[in-house]
TrEMBL record:
Reaction catalyzed: 2 reduced [2Fe-2S]-[ferredoxin] + NADP(+) + H(+) = 2 oxidized [2Fe-2S]-[ferredoxin] + NADPH
Cofactor: FAD
Domain FAD/NAD(P)-binding: 5-293
Similarity remark: Belongs to the ferredoxin--NADP reductase type 2 family.
Record has NADP as a keyword: yes
Leading EC class: oxidoreductase
Protein name: Ferredoxin--NADP reductase
Positions bound to FAD: 14, 33, 41, 46, 86, 121, 288, 329
UniProt entry keywords in alphabetical sequence: FAD, Flavoprotein, NADP, Oxidoreductase
InterPro entries, sorted: FAD/NAD-bd_sf, FAD/NAD-binding_dom, Fd--NADP_Rdtase_type_2, Ferredoxin-NADP_redctase_2
Amino acid sequence: MIKTDILIIGAGPTGLFAVFEAGLLQLKCHLIDALPQAGGQCSEIYPKKPIYDIPGFPEVLAGDLVDNLMEQIKPFQPGFTLGERAETIEKLDDGSFIVTTNKGTKHHAPVVAIAGGLGSFEPRKPLLENLEKYEDNGVAYIIKEPEVYRDKKVLIAGGGDSALDWSIFLADVAKEVTLVHRRNEFRGALDSVEKVQQLKNEGKINLITPAEVVALKGENRLEKVTVKDTSTSEETDVEVDDFIPLFGLSPKLGPISNWGLEIEKNAIKVDNTYDYQTNIPGIYAIGDVNTYPGKLKLILCGFHEATLMCQSAYQKIHPDKKYVMKYTTVGGVTGFDGSKKEAPKAVVKAID
């Protein structure tokens, strides 16, 4: 039985940052993740994708962000159960929980924080004939290593942030980048839309809107895609080496959906007026996995939610102690293994 103060389900950026905030309060954390490594989607799906909305970093690669978070939490020595999925949860008479994974590993904690991101997921695929024939043979749904597209002709389909960001990034890598979207308007950040338009004007991106890919062609490997102008129904064949449809992910909560939590549109409802607690006392949900009025699915919002969750968790774990958080600093603290070391700590003012 693995025992900890806060059991975090999901080792993505939000879950990792929760370890830091809990560590400032001398709360021990253990994380469960179905993936074989920490980092969530940032490590598994797009480690080389640039992220622009992390405070203090004009631009940071997703994989580098994970590396930095791992370095930041190192002093607090979190435990990890990786490659296992949280399967069941049992609430004990004292209000604590036992969470068991699909491989039978049991974890005991007074507080559970679900930071599962989008949950288990699979890419949304376009409805195209012979699509499977070209998968891993010219068609990919995730960009893990941009260098694969060095000096190649790449066509990206989509209208969200991922399609825009990767079109911008690959403009300096690929021989030719074509972006196809079914509407003239994009759903992504305005700055990214303006950047794509600028690159189009400079001849670095071919922008085709409103349009959609309607067919794939090639003997043994993808050679051409047929693009249909949806305003005129005119079809044109475009020579490509690679086709990357970026239509988002289809998320599933998996076993967590059977835990008695209040679910709305495949996300866990939480109380955002205070601490992001679910309808079950002692279980919190932070990051992309939760929902509440005004919710924004941004990493920096997950960091904020993790911070407030840890404050509430401290009071739940130590109901006899009251304090006011003042600021954080660096000083000598006792590690969870009993060693003395330099590490961040919270400076608090006790209340009698």
